[in-house]
Amino acid sequence: PDPVQDNEDVRTIEGSLVRVLATLPAQDRLLLDLHFARGVPLLTIARTWGISRATIMRRLARTLRQCRTA
Question: What is the pLDDT of residue 37?
C-alpha cells in the first residue's frame, strides 16, 4: 500500500464527510455525534429530547439516508 495515496484518500473522504454534514440540520448533526461519536444509546437521546425511541430511530434512518445520497 502507498501511504501517500492512503493519506490523500483519507483527506478526500474527510472533505466529503464535512460537506455532507454541513448540509444537515443542527439537530441531525447532534444526533449523529451523540450516537456514533459519543456512544450515547438512542433511548437515552430520546428521553433527553422528550421524544420516543421510535422517533429517534426514524430521524436517524432519515439522516443516514440523506448522507448516503448526498
Answer: 95
